[in-house]
Amino acid sequence: MRILILLTILSLSLLSGCGPNKPDPKPIVAPMALPAHLEHRPQWPLEIIVGKLKLPAGGLHGLWPGLILAVAPSEAAPDTDVAGYLRITRVGLFSSEAEMIEHNGKPALRTRLIPADAHARTLADVIPAPFFYSVRDANGAAAQRLLRVLDSMADDPASGVSPKAMASESDADFALVAEETGVWAVRSGESLIRSGPLRSPFASWDTLATELRRIGNSVWLVKQAMRGPRQDSLDGDIRLQVLRAPDQPLAGQETALFHNHDPIGFRAVNDSKRPVDITLLLVDGRYRISAVLPAPGAAGRIPAGKNIGFMASVDTRSGAGLEHAILVTVRTSESASAAHFKDLADGFLPWDKGAVPRLAIQGMEWRTTP
Fold it and tell me: Is the pTM of this model over 0.85?
């Protein structure tokens, strides 16, 4: 009987994900065994399809038209072995087209000479696609110091971020509030609530670049998810529901209020006639991203016409709250291998080469209370 009780408690804990000592969701970090100089350099396999150069990466991964990438003979090849360069010509949400160009003293590489395991990688001196910010009360001493730091980041490719100042807060992705005790990132047009879900203080000035890089990637992901219908959409066949309680989905635009460590239910519904692999990403008020289902390195497959229900909980004691749920879906052919989402790091989502996916993301937004 004692063993049965313990097993019951363990099962309930795993289902709800809650508990008094439950830590914050662990950030997803890419376990790439690459040389040190490539650890933070996104790169993707270069594909030749019907005579066109294509990359399995697009706007969601921080690529934009005109961006120049180096063509390396393999994923781990040093920069000294670069075979040539390409320029991005067309960008979709999850894929891009490119052309070989003459650059940095190297002629345009012919298609037939591209190595079989070639990878297109960002150049060492290229910084990510910009994110847009505004600074409130810019005349204050702390704000002036923050602006100087941001300006130096924008001028230094080694900073790894590309902040762009906007004169109007309405045009910015988020607003920064600087005080001597720290810096807060809040959504544009909203008030700074130090005890509420919008607070995002940086521990120190030294961590500002790291935090802004993370926030920039999160903002980019959320913007892509909330854009609405797009070329890569799955025609509404895949739906994500939030459950107030088991079998009680929220109606329409109903606001969901959850308290600290309340279990939050999700149901992913596949109305199509083909199996779909999914990953659910949660973004909190501090723009931290964590995966709920599947765990990093696994895939959650929904059979045709079926649905998957799962539970999560959120720690709102820190004032972060849960703001976005983003369902990333991959539709594969029956014969293709599962498209595993391995990690979300540095703004890119890699997946297994064996998959033949169509991809789409959809997002929803709500608030939690501390």
Answer: no
